[in-house]
Records
---
Amino acid sequence: MTNEAKTTQVAVVGAGPGGYAAAFMAADLGLQVTLIDLDPNPGGTCLYRGCIPSKALLHVAKVIADARDAEHYGITFAAPAINIDKLRQSVNAVIGKLTGGLGQLCKARKIQFIQGRANFEDSSTLKITKDSGEAEILRYRYAILAAGSRPAILEKFLLDSPRVLNSTTALRMDNIPDTLLVVGAGYIGLELGSVYATLGTKVTVVEMAPTILPGADPDLVSPLARRIEPLIHKIILNAKVTDMKEAKNGIKVTMEAPGLELRNQVFDKVLICVGRKPNSSGLGLMNTKVTVDDHGFVIVDKQRRTADPNIFAIGDIVGNPMLAHKASHEGRVAAEVIAGRKVVFAPRAIPAVVFTDPEIAWCGLTETQAAREGRAIKVARFPWQASGRAMTLDRPEGMTKLIADPDTDVVLGVGIVGTGAGELISEGVLAIEMGAVASDIHLTIHPHPTLGETIMESAEIIFGSSTHVYRKK
Ligand code: FAD
């Protein structure tokens, strides 16, 4: 049944970090806002089945690893006893608190939140269908499309088996399998693979590319590759899964790599982490003027306006990098544009963080990208063996590097591998956004002993004299 049409100034479809940030901004700017999502509260992939549950689990993995590493100081603990039900409950409690809090923030801002599936009827009308089957019509002046993305599947092996997981089902932690094959060594595969491996699963990772984390600078990846070697049972590179069958005792997988064929390897579970696809189908976009590219990403301009003048789009649905903080910033820009502000989404740097142990983080120009573009750069690397703080933490494997323009010393990129890299990278992002030169960083007094000093010292290396690194003239 469809009730009489409601109206709103701004309808936001999807309440992930893009959608709720857009809705909150629009409401703060005095607009009347309706926010629609399938889940009972705002949060989206990030809070319900992405960033937050994965980071809670990675924290647990880090606690276990740190306890194990304490042996270095002569302190030993008993092997961990894992209560999987309690673990699951505590992660769910975090999700509940955060999403509930966002629900409260919606109410405080007088945003109308509707739980249901939105479908575009035309360029100014949405039909929202609730779980009960009841539908309502919402007419809007502007819409912000923030429907996000979903895990990509291996089309050839559409195995409808509870033994085949994606990131969403893997995060549910139904049990700790004895063996797990992770297909794809991108950041999600490695983060989830590390969690399961630390909890006791024998994890194998298979990756088509010649390296884990394809696309990241190799010098940032090497310390991670070395550290996870004893944790992950096997990493098979340059390899493709060519067959997957359900068997009585697991999933039988055949993998092929140059000169190698691994036939019928049996795993308790297989976790597919081969990327994410935009949720642009099934939204009725054909009833609007919105256009999508060959990969299904919605095409937008710098203000995040689609080809339909009434509709904006933000977040994962508009393309890479598919990251929560990018989505939020785009959302706020779209809301500001709707409110009449002259703003564009034009970041100089969007940070990327891989929350493995050690973490890897980078922002701005990477060495890989500079090489691809044939761009001249100056690179300074500060090894963490020379950092007092890294030594006190017994984590000297890290490295901080600064990429600068060879003529002007303007900071173009920062890359960090090491414990806490994700917290450290923001200084690099700020430097790039502010157009800082390397001397701005090296003349900024950093507190001692901290890992932040490694950024200052990498800037000192640009000028040939770092206190803790001696280089022969
Ligand atoms: P989403 O968060 O995907 O939200 C879209 C929302 O739209 C969803 O709630 C969906 O239910 C809703 N929706 C879809 N269709 C409709 C419809 N027709 N009607 C109504 N509602 C609809 N990013 C980071 O920055 N850092 C991390 O550490 C990180 N870790 C991740 C770990 C995992 C395991 C995964 C899967 C992702 C991770 N990400 C991380 C990526 C991050 O979650 C996404 O980039 C981010 O959530 C995108 O935000 P969004 O608002 O564009 O869309």
---
Amino acid sequence: MTVNPVAAALRRGLFTRVVGKRLLYYQELSSTMDEAARRADAGAEDGTVVVAESQTSGRGRFGRSWVSPKGNLYLSVVLRPTREVLPQLTILSGVAVARAIRKTTRLEPRIKWPNDVLIDGKKVAGILVESVAAGDHVCYAVVGIGINVNLDTSAVSELAGRATSLDAAAGRPVARGDVLRQLLQDLDALYLRAGQGQSPRQRIMEEWRSTLDTLGQRVRVDWLGESYQGLAEDVDETGNLLLRLDDGSRVSLAAGEVTLHDPAV
Ligand code: BTN
């Protein structure tokens, strides 16, 4: 019998101030992103969380699909950040996912820029941030997180060899409720801290930078229809990747605009 991860998380005690104050649980949705956006448009409060057991049209960055059978975690969080915090959401959600996995499984996740969470070089979680603004005003953002907990990656041809799950990496069953609870608590703490100003944001950035696998590697990126190769030198305070191209120039690449490929050969 499948254990409802939301009920399990609540039973263990969910200690958050904003994230998860309202938790909505569905057996199946097209995508938790759509339901969260629908709720946000209807006025859902900051921190509303939408969780689904499975998704029929789960999506990832650049319109890719996100395979979403039962057994994993699929959630979207409605946030109402300030303009200063909005660009930090990619960073703080990556840090929150990495922390939650580390604390609940003792595995050591790494992040492939901007926010593919990897274990032993294979993708275990993905994060999608979508936002709606009106002029200078941020109406809301939706942070979507998918974590492979119990996924038979060999059964899905596009994932075989490239993705893993927490169960497989840990070599034992991992309780989804524990991961969900820890994730919401970490996301809550980081979201609140990011709202407290420049210096807390800087510390979150340092944690993200130290988890990034990409820095110091040669990479190939697709950007504005062209392919570039270079050395991933650093990230800036909004999470842009600073790439030293082979002609010696340095470009700043925004997460939403660039596809990053495995290290160039
Ligand atoms: C990526 O790596 O490209 C991002 C994947 C994000 C997947 C999650 S699963 C929960 C939420 N609902 C979706 O349809 N997508 C996100």
---
Amino acid sequence: MKYYIKTFGCQMNVYDSGRIANILQSLGHEATPTIKDADIVIFNTCHIREKAAEKVFSDLGRYNQIREERLSEGKSTIVGVCGCVVQAEDEQIWKRAPFVDFATGPLTYHRLPEILARVMRKRGDFVIDTDFPAEDKFDFLPENHASGACSYLAIQEGCNNFCTYCVVPYTRGAEYSRPVEEVLKEAKRLVSEGCLELNLLGQNVNSYHGEDSSGKERSLAYLIHKLAELDGLKRIRYTTSYPADMTDELINCYKDIDKLMPYLHLPIQSGSDKILKAMNRRHTSGDYLRIIDKLKEANPNIGMSSDFIVGFPGENEDDFQATLDVVDKVQYIQAFSFKYSPRPGTPAAIMTNQIPEKIKKARLEILQNKLFDYQNKFNQTSIGKIMPVLFETQGRHAGQLIGRTPYMQNLHAELSKDNLNKIVKVKVTAATTNSLTGSFIGE
Ligand code: SAH
Ligand code: SF4
Ligand code: F3S
């Protein structure tokens, strides 16, 4: 059969979709780029904000028309929903989209062969699996394979932090670190298949504490040192980090390991200590700024990125100003910012001092303008510099490739296809807020 997977949400979901594809391929199914041709359609979903979750249901509704068209042509489709919406909504999924055949959470998709067999045996019944299983899904997944020069590798999953706004501890469960040897084995295979850049993933990746073969717990810094020894691997990144878990050992990696890219996504969420406390974050804005100072000491060229939430319950003008002040101090080279979205079942959703939508909207606009200004400023200072760029995709125009600089900037260049999946030296010739243009200098 032919399958199509539509992915919503974070990089972990992108990784999971890759692993779901591994399972479907191991069962003899084949990917199709056209949803209309697919006999198995899977929505891998995100529940982080209301908009993200609602988009899943509106896209499912739209897809149902295609499913019905196929049915009228005598073709049946198996429709599945995976990911965080399943864990949060459970049977509600079936109530809102009754044509869905099965649903499985982020920790149970390794049971897909069994789930699909059940669906095929008794069509019409809804099959759902939202366990937090005792077994480790990674032990049951077929091998992962590189699909290009950049690969994600999940090393940690789940979260014990329980920020009061966030669904992740409920949808992905408690923190779990994959054993060191298992991570190294997957990394070696990806590198042997042409992966040049590894992005280590976890909801709280810098709290990684996987066991080595002697049973000793090892840190993310240890893992990065080990991975840096892999000859073919050229770039290492990791995301997402929690400020309170930024150890000196990890910070020092920015001084000692050239392969570790000088770009770090370290979400602060808010600059106000009052709001950080209400969010149940285990750091103040002062702690955060001290970490950045240390990072800059380790590598003065490090570029920072963050996530921000505006309009958290109780946020007043002073609190919001404190967030703007952090942005001015850190001068982020990239950032993601969101209006607070109350999520059912989280403590912040029932706080009484909710902020009106109009204020959230106005604050988001002010914050984003400031963030864009700094991002644009950084991109402008890149003009004239020679940078190593890893080209990953073809551009919209013939003869154009798109790649990433060490700072995760998108860069377009007129280059032949031979340079795809390679790192080449490029001189930056122009910049906008969102991307750079460059010309080829050499290998
Ligand atoms: N594990 C990561 C990312 C979690 S989700 C971390 O701890 O940083 C990605 C981002 O979504 C968060 O950093 C936060 O900025 C945002 N987010 C999470 N829940 C949200 C909510 N209820 N409303 C608005 N933004 C939210
Ligand atoms: Fe959510 Fe906080 Fe955990 Fe990040 S650290 S996943 S924001 S609970
Ligand atoms: Fe979304 Fe789940 Fe990732 S809620 S952000 S897909 S961990």
